[in-house]
From TrEMBL:
Alphabetical UniProt keywords: Iron, Iron-sulfur, Metal-binding, Methyltransferase, S-adenosyl-L-methionine, Transferase
Record's keyword annotation contains Transport: no
Signal peptide positions (record): none
Domain (B12-binding): residue spans on this chain: 8-141
Organism: Acetobacter orleanensis
One Pfam family matching this protein: Radical_SAM
Cofactor: [4Fe-4S] cluster
Keyword Transferase: yes
PROSITE patterns in UniProt: B12_BINDING, RADICAL_SAM
Gene Ontology MF annotations: catalytic activity; cobalamin binding; iron-sulfur cluster binding; metal ion binding
Domain Radical SAM core: 181-395
Name of the protein in its database record: B12-binding domain-containing radical SAM protein
InterPro entries named among the record's database cross-references: Aldolase_TIM, BchE-like, Cobalamin-bd, Cobalamin-bd_sf, Elp3/MiaA/NifB-like_rSAM, HpnR_B12_rSAM, Methyltransferase_Class_B, rSAM
Length: 513
C-alpha cells in the first residue's frame, strides 16, 4: 500500500527558537516501510499545504496518516482530513501521536467521518498491524491502540525493542531546515523512551505508563555514524537517567571517533547525581543543556511535584557552567502571577547568565492539572493550547497578563537574541552562512514578530471551528492509573538499576506503580 505520513505546521514557539526533525513520524514511516509498504513524508513545518495537495495528486496514496503530537495542531489536522475526504473520498485517513492518544473520541467526533481511526500509543509498534488489517479487509478493532466511532481495539502495545526500529530519515526532503539554537542543521535521535517521574503538568509519564526503555549503545552509535548533520538533539524526556547507559554511549562514541555537537534535556537532580556522565559528554560534544526548573521558589516546585530543592537547582546550574555548557532553563508562569511576581522573575532572569524561557501553565489532557482545572478553562479552542497562551483565568486582566508575560520573555530576547547575540556568535553565524545555513541567523530577529501581546490577545478573538467538549465537574483526587495511555507495568518496564530506581522513587511524590 502507498502511505503518506504528514507532520502539521509549526507552533508559536517553534517559529523562533527551534525547528525539530519530525523523528516520531520518521519512526512510524520506517516501521510502515519495513512492513513492505511504499511510504512518503511531508513536513508542513517547512513545506506548504499547496505542496501537500501536489504530493497527494502525484503519489496517489491509499493511506494518509497525520502526526497528532501537539494539541494546538488538532484544528489544522482536522481541516486537512475533511478537505482530503472531499477531494479523495477513498483514501483511508488516521491520526496518531501523543496528544490525540488522550482525546481520540473527541477528535473522531469533530472530524465528522473524515478520520477513519485514531491509533493510540506508540505508532511504530502498531502501524504495520493496522496497514495489514486494512489491506486484508480485517476488523480494524483487532489492532492494538485503534479507536473508531464503533469502539476500541486492544490496549496499545510497545515496540518489542528500541534496537529494532529505525527512522526513515531519507524520506525527509528538506533536512537543512531543522535546527535548535546554533546547531544548524540538526538531526534528532532517541537514546531512551519514557519517563519514570510523575510531574503534575506533564503527560510523558502518563503516555508511557511510567516506563523507561533504552536502546543499545552500539545501535545508537551506528545511527549517529549514519547521520550527516553535525548537530544532534537528543529527544529523551530526561537524558541520562541511568548513569551506566549514558556512559556506555559516550564510550562507544569516543571509540568510534564520532564528532557531533549535542543538545539535551534533563533534570537538575539527575545532572547532580550523574556528574561524571555529563562531564564526559561535555568532552565529546555536548554544548547545550536544557533544565526544566519550572519554578524559582519552593512553593512553585511543590505545585508541579518536582522534588528538587532550589538549592539543588542552583547547584546544578553552577555545575553545568563549570563544564562550559550553555544552559537553558524553563520557568512556568502561573495565571495567578501579578505585576510584582513578573517583575521579581524578570530581575532573577537578568541576574543569571542562563537562557530563560517562560511558558504558561497549560492543562493538557493526560495531566493531573487537566483533571483538576478543566472546568475552569476560559477557552476551548485547541489552537490556544500551546504553552504560550493563557487558557485559565488570570489574576491580572488578560491584556495586562500578556504585556507582563512578553515583557518577561523579552529578557531572553535582550540577552540572547538580536545584535547582542550576534556579537557573541559572529564566528558561528559566519560559518553557518558560508554553508548556506540561515535558520539560526534568521531566528535572532524573529522574536518581536511572533511574541506580541496584541497578537496573542487577538488569538482569543478568532472564531474557533473546533472546540473541546465541556468537561465534567472538577475532580479533587485523581486515580493516576486512569490517566495512562500505555498501562503501568511497574518496575519491570523500567531499564534502571536498583539504585537508580530508588533515586527516582525518592524524587517523585506519588507511590503508584
Amino acid at each position: 500500500m502507498k502511505v503518506l505520513a504528514v507532520h502539521p505546521s509549526a507552533l508559536m514557539y517553534t517559529k523562533v527558537f527551534l525547528r525539530l526533525e519530525p523523528l516520531g513520524l520518521e519512526l512510524v514511516a520506517g516501521a510502515a516501510r519495513d512492513a513492505g509498504h511504499d511510504v512518503q513524508i511531508i513536513d508542513l513545518q517547512v513545506e506548504t499545504q499547496k505542496d501537500y495537495w501536489t504530493l497527494l495528486e502525484s503519489f496517489k496514496p491509499d493511506v494518509v496518516c497525520f502526526s497528532g503530537n501537539y494539541l494546538a495542531n488538532v484544528p489544522e489536522i482536522i481541516d486537512l482530513c475533511r478537505a482530503t475526504r472531499v477531494r479523495y473520498p477513498d483514501i483511508f485517513q488516521f491520526i496518531g501521536g501523543h496528544s490525540v492518544s488522550f482525546i481520540a473520541r473527541d477528535v473522531l467526533a469533530l472530524s465528522e467521518g473524515a478520520v477513519n481511526c485514531i491509533l493510540k500509543g506508540e505508532g511504530d509498534a502498531s502501524i504495520g498491524l493496522l496497514l495489514s488489517a486494512l489491506k486484508d479487509g480485517k476488523d480494524l478493532l483487532s489492532v492494538p491502540g485503534v479507536v473508531t466511532m464503533d469502539g476500541e481495539g486492544p490496549p496499545p502495545v510497545f515496540v518489542d525493542s528500541l534496537n529494532d526500529i529505525r527512522p526513515a530519515r531519507d524520506l525527509l526532503r528538506h533536512r537543512n531546515k531543522y535546527f535548535i539554537g546554533t546547531l544548524d542543521p540538526a538531526a534528532s535521535i532517541e537514546f531512551a523512551r519514557g519517563c519514570p517521574w510523575d510531574c503534575t503538568f506533564c503527560s510523558a509519564w502518563t503516555f508511557y505508563g511510567r516506563s523507561y526503555r533504552t536502546a543499545s549503545p552500539m545501535v545508537i552509535a551506528d545511527e549517529l555514524e549514519e547521520i550527516k548533520e553535525p548537530g544532534i538533539f537528543i529527544v529523551d524526556d530526561v537524558a541520562f537517567v541511568h548513569e551506566e547507559h549514558g556512559m556506555a554511549i559516550a564510550n562507544e562514541i569516543k571509540k568510534r571517533g564520532i564528532k557531533k555537537e549535542y543538545y539535551l534535556e534533563t533534570r537538575a537532580d539527575v545532572l547532580l547525581r550523574n556528574k561524571d556522565v555529563f562531564k564526559v559528554w561535555s568532552e565529546i560534544g555536548l554544548s547545550y543543556i536544557f533544565i526544566g526548573m519550572e519554578a524559582v521558589d519552593e512553593e512553585g516546585l511543590k505545585q508541579f511535584r518536582k522534588r528538587v530543592s532550589l538549592d539543588k537547582n542552583f547547584e546544578a546550574l553552577e555545575y553545568a557552567r563549570s563544564l562550559g555548557l550553555i544552559v537553558a532553563i524553563n520557568i512556568i508562569a502561573d495565571p495567578d502571577w501579578d505585576r510584582g511576581r513578573f517583575e521579581a522573575v524578570r530581575q532573577w532572569c537578568l541576574e543569571i547568565p542562563e537562557i530563560v524561557n517562560i511558558s504558561v501553565t497549560t492543562p493538557y489532557p493526560g495531566t493531573e492539572i487537566w483533571h483538576r482545572e478543566a472546568r475552569r478553562l476560559t477557552t476551548r479552542d485547541y489552537r490556544l493550547f500551546d504553552i504560550q497562551h493563557a487558557v485559565l483565568p488570570t489574576k491580572l486582566p488578560l491584556p495586562e497578563f500578556y504585556e507582563e508575560l512578553v515583557k518577561t520573555q523579552q529578557v531572553l530576547n535582550t540577552k540572547h537574541m538580536g545584535w547582542e547575540a550576534l556579537k557573541d556568535t559572529a564566528g558561528i553565524a559566519g560559518r553557518l552562512l558560508m554553508k548556506g545555513q540561515t535558520n539560526f541567523v534568521k531566528m535572532l530577529w524573529k522574536f518581536n514578530s511572533v511574541f506580541n501581546p496584541k497578537l496573542q490577545l487577538a488569538d482569543h478573538m478568532r472564531k474557533a471551528r473546533y472546540l473541546m467538549p465541556i468537561q465534567p465537574d472538577v475532580v479533587e483526587s485523581v486515580d493516576r492509573k486512569d490517566l495512562y495511555v500505555h498501562g503501568p507495568g511497574g518496575r519491570k518496564t523500567r531499564a534502571l538499576d536498583d539504585a537508580t530506581e530508588q533515586f527516582v522513587d525518592k524524587t517523585r511524590m506519588s507511590e503508584d506503580a
